[in-house]
Amino acid sequence: MPPVKSALSPGTVSAPSSDQLPPWDLYTVFVCLLSGYILVPLLLSNILLLIDPFMGPVRKVILEQGVTVLTWLIIFGGLHWRYGHLPHYLGLSMTRPRQYYQWETVLLILLSGGLTLLLSLLWAALTQWWPGLNLGTDPFADFSRSQIWAMSLFAVFTAPILEELIFRGLVQSTLHQRWGRIGSVFYGSLIFMLFHGSYLNNAKALTHVIVIGLCFAIWRERTRSLIPGMVAHWFNNLLATVLMLSGSG
């Protein structure tokens, strides 16, 4: 009986599952984080500021956020060109029924949204009971209303996708190779917190980042997918933005 020919043509590599660990290492992740958040945005922003030294604060915020987004698009494009199958490695593939992801998304929205409201109420109560309580520096204290609106647009429409791809996709999937599920959740959440440097001097903002970061990291390991985290991240940022703009956050 003649051997059965493979459905794949010679040289064709089947797409990996979302459970398969990425082929890059921690050094690659470190270079990507350094380039995507510090080196390239800083370089490009300074070049554009030299071109327009009298740029207003709102345009500066838009410039900084836009350059960061563009930089990460280039980085992810380079990773996909180098390794291929990037959506599978990052956790964008749907390997289970759609209803599973819908249910997990609803659960994560309820959990993260509920914790956001609970933390806001808790800190509001603490400041009332203890008027002299020092929560630290407000990360947006020096921002004008227009700057806050500009930041809010990116926080709602860009950050949920980009941050999940970076921290729960690129970073956490790589950490999983070395430290497993628990280690990837812990260290991934720690890295997520450290890269929100403007929140480190404010207790209220810091607790929010820690708790929400842990929720998204746990759900990444629970579902092996970024889809619930992206949707819940969007909802959470929208809720936090509404609370901040209303003066309750």
Summarize this entry quickly.
With about 250 residues, the chain is mainly alpha-helical. The protein is about 70% helix and about 0% strand.
Topology of helices and strands:
Blueprint: H1 26-51, H2 57-83, H3 86-90, H4 98-129, H5 145-157, H6 159-194, H7 203-223, H8 227-245
Helix pairs in contact: 1-2, 2-5, 4-7, 4-8, 5-8, 6-7, 6-8, 7-8
Strand content: under 5%
User: What is the H/E string?
Assistant: HHHHHHHH
**How can the largest sheet be summarized?**
none
SS summary, helix count: 8
Query: Helices and strands: which structural class?
Result: mainly alpha
CA-based gyration radius: 20 Å
Helix content: over 70%
What shape does the CA trace take?
globular
* Uncertain stretches: 1-13
Count of DSSP strands: 0
Query: Would you tell me the overall average pLDDT?
Result: 85
Distance between the termini: 72 Å
Explain what this protein looks like in three dimensions:
It contains eight helices and no strands. With 249 residues, it is mainly α. The relative contact order is 0.14. The longest helix has 36 residues, at 159-194. The model is unreliable at 1-13 (pLDDT under 50). 72% of the residues lie in helices and 0% in strands. Helix 2 runs parallel beside helix 5 (145-157) and helix 6 packs across helix 8. The N and C termini lie far apart (72 Å). The protein has helices at residues 26-51, 57-83, 86-90, 98-129, 145-157, 159-194, 203-223, 227-245.
